[in-house]
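User: what does the whole thing look like in 3D?
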Amino acid sequence: MTRWELKRRSFLRALGVGAGMLPVLAETRHASAASGLGRLITVVKGNGTRAETFWPTGAGADGSLNGAVFPHVVAPLKDLREKLLFLDGITLRNWLKSEGNTTGDNGDAHHNWGNLLTGTLPGPATSSDGGCRLNAGGCHMGAGSASLDCFVGQALRKKDPSLAFDSLHLSLNADDLSTARRGSGMSCPSWFDKDVPNPPEPDVKTVFTKIFGGRQLSTGGVANEGLWRKRVRLLDFVGKDLERFAKNLGRDDRQAAEAHLTSVHRRQDELNRLLSSPPAMCKTPAAPTLDYLVKNEANVPGRSKLMMDMHR
Amino acid sequence: MRWIGLAALVVCATALGCTGLVRDDGASDGGGAGMGGSSGQETQTGGRTHGSQISAAVVPLRRLSRDEYANTLEDLLGVKPTVDELFSTDTLGAAGLAEGGVITSDEIERMMNAFDGLVSRFEQSSFVKQLPCQPKNNDDKACAVAFIEAFATRAYRHPPSAQELAQLVAIFDEAHASLPLQAALLDVVRAALLSPRFHYRWERSDDVPVASNGLVKLGPFEVASRLSYFLWQSMPDAALFEAARANKLSTPSQLAAQVTRMLQDPVRTPRGLRGFFRAWLPLAPLETAPATDKDYVLKQSSLAATWAFLEDLVLGSSGDHSFTSLLASKTAFVDGALAQTLGLPGMKTDAPLAKVKLDAADRSGLFTQPAFLMSTTDTPLATIIHRGRYVYERLADCGAVPPPQGAVPSPPPRRPEASVREQLQEHARDGVCRGCHQFMDPMGFAFDGFDKLGRTRTTDDYGKPIDTHGTLPLANGEALSFSNAASLLVVLSKREESQRCFAQVLSQYAHRSGADDALAPANKAIGDAFVAAGGDILQLLTFATQQPSFIYRKPSQGEVLQ
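Assistant: Here's the predicted 3D structure for the full assembly of 874 residues, as structure tokens:
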């Protein structure tokens, strides 16, 4: 099959135009740019995949997958073959020791996982754990810059400022926050910026609340502007309190407090956007029940569907 | 030395002349010259100033851990958070201790939702009890301010400064313009819970700390929280706040008296004890096992049995709180499910947890209990490495260095014709691997007599006969010989170096400062005291508070100081 060479900038531009998924990228390749808002979904398989179960065989010289055979890992996608592009031959050079990666040549690959979507070297070590940052919002790995999904989110926001969120960063991680003592999602491939993690959100209730703007789940009533306004006021207090709190702290401690402050401002901005243009374009689905919050792998399909329903 | 007034400590007091314990008059007792790297320090404890050498560690700003949130919210509001009201996820902080990570915007949303629920239940249950006065009417501002000040003192774990109080009163005023007094006060409660002063272990206002000779002495409210989070994983109680207000938390005897009092708390102390042992033991795989795990019930039973064992050993009335028994006790707790799995006769399958005497020659203390054995189970080869590494680093050589960068942390591929032990021995002959595995693996072999559920066995996962004998060369030239895990643990339990390793971890936990060289004098003194006291773990909890390092800290880089 043809190996498409795609520059990072072209990739980002294609995504930023309004299409995020690889299938849509294929449409971009065929000069049929999609209109409207798209979505970027990244799926990371931590321990890799056996090559022969993943790569389609028998692709045409132009990359066409019409006659290709889809091995079992990608077989469910075969009906979308017209819209798919398999990018092969990509080297993550930031995983190489020769490029300055302190954790070595891919040898301990999960230490580099956090950089998968950033394409940059890990952030500086803050512990003895060989270049990993261990204290970053439930994320285990370091990042050297904002990640691809956040660039896309920012581009989408520029295109449509009325968008409430840069990214919903939904996660279907089976590790529920309720019991994940070791940290839900030990790695964090998504980063808002250098050292600012964007950890997966596995709590469907939080996703629901975020999308529907803090509506009272117990009542399921109309958008509660009063609640949003109160929260904006409380966050204003917290922001000022944090500024005073951080003032005299040492360098590293101040950075932690400033990251907290950034999160406060981010949430305030989100609430203010909701207040200025309340979401009214979709019907609120039923609020998730407690069943979905319990750590139970049997709930994963239900949680997945619920998250996708909310994302529509 | 008035601190000897504690009867339990008399025995070891005479042996501590050179351990560097702080005397009630504030001078460092004997450890001064030995405190390498410390600076000359004019210390003021007990109201007097003396010259001495004090060494203290940097204490990084630390967010409450998940357990600390749960306990603190319960103690503050009188309302127990539900599982989905615990918004935080732990990350690893100093010395591998759990703490909350960076607060993200999503987490802010989660915590605001959680606080709405908690404050609502607080209103229905204990709000009225926490009012320091009965409001005369809906506009009783004086009573409202009294509540705000009292609540903020507890939520922030220090009395609010005038500015902090003014900010909260402003929240009240704004809310009270449209809400009744009680509802407006509950908005203040929400604000206080969102404040960084609730979330971070930094119990001081915005005043600039005073440094003298490179150290900052903790204020009384900071010491109160250091004690309470060390022993309870929670906020101070009323007595600790009172002691802080009266500035009675600065001498060794005052601290020891508080420790003695706090250890009597039947709810907070067992809860707090788990905090340390969670840091010391690798039990996370059991604690996070999903309900769908086929061994879930057994894992839960194993955990409950180990917690019961530890609570009984450290806090029980037997009088034996020794490190020796921790590693070599023939007493254990089992319920019906565990008894059946372990092949213990005489218990029904649904029998509740009970204390039993074990006759088996292959069981000895904590590390032959199913909880440790199950939590360290992996693939056949990796299981031996995990168990061996853990015991080696925690009990044999606490100064062990981590694997070199670039080392591939994976065992060799399986060779069916060889036993697990033979394969690992071959692997350890490799030049790079040998450096660590020559120490770790022999200890792991000792535990090969236990399968993934903690049952005893005589053949390994490949069906080959098991050999649990070994000799372990230690870095200090010692060699430990053993026939199985039980005999290894008996040897380790009597070894001073192993006791010092244990004391060092507890010292780091008490100081929450990680592996800071500046803590070395305190670690040594605490280790000396622990050994002199015959390895009494209950006394160790007091020893950890008796060093000057417990009430001092080294400023962090860039910190603004007077």
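In plain terms: The first strand of chain A starts at residue 191 and ends at 193. Residues 251-276 of chain A form the longest helix (26 residues).
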